[in-house]
Design a protein that fits this description.
The protein is 33% helix and 25% strand. The chain has 306 residues and is of the alpha/beta class. It has a six-stranded mixed sheet with strand order 5-6-7-3-8-9, with helices on both faces. A four-stranded antiparallel sheet has the order 11-12-10-13, with helices on one face. A three-stranded antiparallel sheet has the order 2-1-4, covered by helices on one side. Strand 11 and strand 12 form a beta hairpin. The radius of gyration is 24 Å and the shape is elongated.
C-alpha cells in the first residue's frame, strides 16, 4: 500500500533554532496516524510545512506524490484543521461553510450535510463564531475540513475543548473515515484517545523522529511473565538453563526469554505452571515519556528541590 503522506528528510530552521530536524515518516491510506511529541517538539511546524503554510529549509513533504501547493484544488484532496480559533469571528458558522463550498465548487446541499455530520444545530449554525465555545469551533473546523470530501485529513489537536461525548464522537468520526480508506494524521496531547483510535504512531522530540511504527509494534510487550506452583524451584531451573528471571511485582517471575523456552524448562523439571504469557505491552504514556524524557519541558523534581 503506497503512503498517502510522505515526509522526507524535512528540516525547518528559524535562524539558529532548528524546529524540525531531518524528519522522515509516512502516513498510509486506511490508517489513523497519531503524531505525538512534547510542546515545542516540531509537530505543528511539520504540519504547517505539510499544508503549504511554511516553506521547508530542506527536505520535502508530498501528498499522493505532490507538494500541497501543487494540488489544483487542495480542499477536495486534503482536509486541514490546524487552529480551530482561526475562523472569522464576525461570520456565522453557516456563512463560513457556504463560503468554503462556493470557493471549492461544492453544492449548497453539502453545507447542510456537514452541519448535520458535526451536530451543529440550525440555531448554532446561525450564531456568529465569536459566540462559539471552543468545542463548537472544533466541530465547525471539522465540517470545513470535510467539505470537499477529501482523501486525507490533517488535524492538529482537534479534540481540544470537546467534552467526553464530543471526544467519543470525534473518535468514531475519524475511525469511520479511515475505515473507508481515508488517511488521517492526528496530532493530540490526549494520549489515551490516541491509544484508542490510532493504528500507527510517530513520536517527535526536539524536532527529530524518535520512534515510528504500528501501535502494536511500539507498544508490544517483551519477555515472558510466568507463575508456577513453586516459583523458587522454577527460578533455580531457569538460572541453570542460562535464563535470568526476576520476581514480578504482580507476582510470579518475569524473564527476557520467550514463553516457549520458559515452558520447556518448566516441563523438563516437572514444575506445574499456573500462568505463562508474553510480557504486558507498555501503555502509550509510558512509551511516550520514555522516548521523550530528554525533551520534556516539565521534568520530575529531584530530591531537595523544595
Amino acid at each position: 500500500m503506497n503512503p498517502m503522506i510522505t515526509v522526507e528528510n524535512l528540516t525547518k530552521r528559524y535562524g539558529d533554532h532548528i524546529a524540525v530536524d531531518d524528519a522522515s515518516f509516512t502516513c498510509r491510506p486506511g490508517q489513523v496516524t497519531g503524531f505525538l511529541g512534547p510542546n515545542g517538539a516540531g509537530k505543528s511546524t511539520t504540519m504547517r510545512v505539510m499544508t503549504g503554510l511554511t516553506p521547508p529549509t530542506s527536505g520535502a513533504v508530498t501528498i499522493d506524490g505532490r507538494p500541497y501547493r501543487e494540488i489544483p484544488n487542495p480542499s477536495i484532496e486534503v482536509g486541514v484543521l490546524l487552529d480551530a480559533s482561526a475562523q472569522h469571528a464576525g461570520r456565522t458558522g453557516e456563512e463560513i461553510l457556504r463560503l468554503t463550498a462556493m470557493t471549492i465548487g461544492m453544492p449548497r446541499t453539502r453545507v447542510d450535510e456537514m452541519l448535520e455530520l458535526v451536530s451543529l444545530t440550525p440555531d448554532e449554525a446561525g450564531r456568529r463564531v465569536r459566540n462559539y465555545s471552543l468545542g463548537m469551533r472544533q466541530r465547525l473546523g471539522i465540517a470545513n475540513a470535510l467539505m470537499g470530501d477529501p482523501r486525507v485529513l490533517i488535524l492538529d489537536e482537534p479534540a481540544n475543548g470537546l467534552d467526553p461525548a464530543g471526544i467519543h464522537w470525534m473518535r468514531s468520526l475519524l475511525r469511520g473515515y479511515a475505515d473507508r480508506g481515508g488517511t488521517v494524521l492526528l496530532s493530540s496531547h490526549l494520549l489515551n484517545e490516541i491509544e484508542i483510535v490510532a493504528d500507527d504512531l510517530v513520536v517527535i522530540g526536539n524536532g527529530r523522529i524518535v520512534a515510528q511504527g504500528t501501535k502494536s509494534e511500539l507498544l508490544a510487550g517483551t519477555g515472558t511473565s510466568v507463575r508456577s506452583l513453586d516459583d523458587a524451584a522454577l527460578a533455580t531451573a531457569l538460572d541453570a538453563a542460562g535464563i535470568v528471571a526476576h520476581p514480578d511485582t504482580a507476582g510470579g517471575l518475569h524473564t527476557d526469554a520467550d514463553p516457549e523456552q520458559v515452558g520447556r524448562v518448566a516441563a523438563a523439571h516437572a514444575i506445574a505452571l499456573t500462568e505463562l504469557r508474553a510480557g504486558d505491552g507498555a501503555k502509550l504514556e509510558e512509551m511516550f515519556l520514555s522516548l521523550t524524557a530528554s525533551t520534556q519541558r516539565e521534568q520530575p523534581l529531584t530530591a531537595g528541590a523544595f
